[in-house]
Amino acid sequence: MVNDGQSKIRIALTEQHGVAMEYCQFPPDGVEYEFIRPFPSAHSVIRSPIKSYFGRYETKEHELIEAVLSPIFTKNKWIYYLANFQEAVAFSFLGLPILKSIRIAFITNMILKDNFKKMIFWSNAGKDTLMSYGKIDDDRIFRKSTVVYPAIREISNVHIRFNSKKDVNLLFSGDFFRKGGVNVVDAFERIQKLFPGVRLRLCCDDKIDFNTENIVLKNEYLDKIKRNTAVILGRATRSDIMDDILPNTDIYLLPTYVEAFGYAILEAMAYGIPVIATNHFAIPEMVEHNRSGFLIDTSGYDCDRLFRGYVVKDVPRDFREHVTDELFKYMCRLIESPNLRETFGRAGLDTARTKFSFRERNMKMSRIYREALA
Fold first, then answer.
1. How confident is the model over 223-239, as pLDDT tens digits?
2. If DSSP codes are grouped into helix, strand and coil, which group holds residue 275?
């Protein structure tokens, strides 16, 4: 069905992922989003750690299906929004591994079908995985591939402040070990000796977000955190994060080891908060080093090999010391200079309101929708 320019284009979304939930609230002009459920399946031989992987979707009420995170089975016209190509081929047969070449061949065959219209990556780093991970050189695949950045809503200036003092609030969030919580806690202990008034908020849960097979390492850092009265540990509600925690954060820390995108960084930038992160994967497409934040260079380490999978087994000593030393150095510079924090914060705010705005995203998605239905 081709939209006549008057009625709404009805887009069905497959997964209530946070990014999809966000852009669902700010649709392009002439577009209507609705989440739909997959058809129930009594049994599936395909297994994946990704939710609703290869779900079967059919709809007569929508012109187009937009698959989020996971590829789908459908006879409808559909597009696919994903962080990297690894997500597309993350499946097994009854839990048994399948050769990577077979999984890639299966997915590329789906992409080349007439009803598949566009593969949309969250970042240029994500799109590059077609070659770096998938070893794909088929021009037909690349013609069906593009990049559209996730958007972040514009935060009212009422919630944006720039603290002129050195008693600052630091924030870390997410999976403690994969995202560099070890380095945050170690660097913070050193920072406290120079700046006793600094506070650290760890938005993570000790039962859910401390994923490691190394029990000694886990207990070591839980003990460090519990002994330190300047550290607050615990998850917070979405409203508390947006209305209280982020408006009162001065520096956001995410020295992550493995990252598909890093949406939490965008959220911090939307509040004018300077960021210290690693230069892993798509993060340099958000944070410009020495302009809106500081990026710790980890290019000398094979992070994909060192931290394969969701659970961190160990953090090698040389890598840990490198990241912690760089994090400490950059934290000192930002804590010592309120002016630098404000300069970086305003630059990040500008990036969030332009490059990652809903205006920019909706303009690109509208064009993709029209082309898919033409």
1. 999 999 999 999 999 88
2. strand
Asked if residue 121 lies in contact with residue 84, where contact means CB atoms within 8 angstroms, the answer is yes
* Neighbour-count burial of 163, counting CB atoms closer than 10 A to its CB (0-12 exposed, 13-18 middle, 19+ buried): middle
In the block, tokens 């020495």 appear at 290
Tokens describing residue 152: 């972040």
- Res. 1: pLDDT tops 70: no
Q: How many CB atoms lie within 10 A of CB 212?
A: 19
Closest by CA position to 253, among listed 233, 273, 270: 273
Contact 149, 179 (CB under 8 A): no
- Structure confidence at residue 173 (pLDDT): 97
What does the mean pLDDT of the chain come to?
94
Total residues belonging to the chain = 374
Share of the chain above pLDDT 90, in %: 86
Quote the pLDDT of residue 6: 56
CATH architecture of 9-151+357-373: 3-Layer(aba) Sandwich (3.40)
Instruction: Find how far residue 360's CA is from the centre of its chain.
Output: 18
Reading the block at residue 92, the tokens are 């097994």
The CATH superfamily assigned to 157-354 is: Glycogen Phosphorylase B; (3.40.50.2000)
Both tokens of 162, joined, read: 């720039």
Residue 43 has a pLDDT of 58
Any idea where the domains of the chain sit in the sequence?
9-151+357-373, 157-354
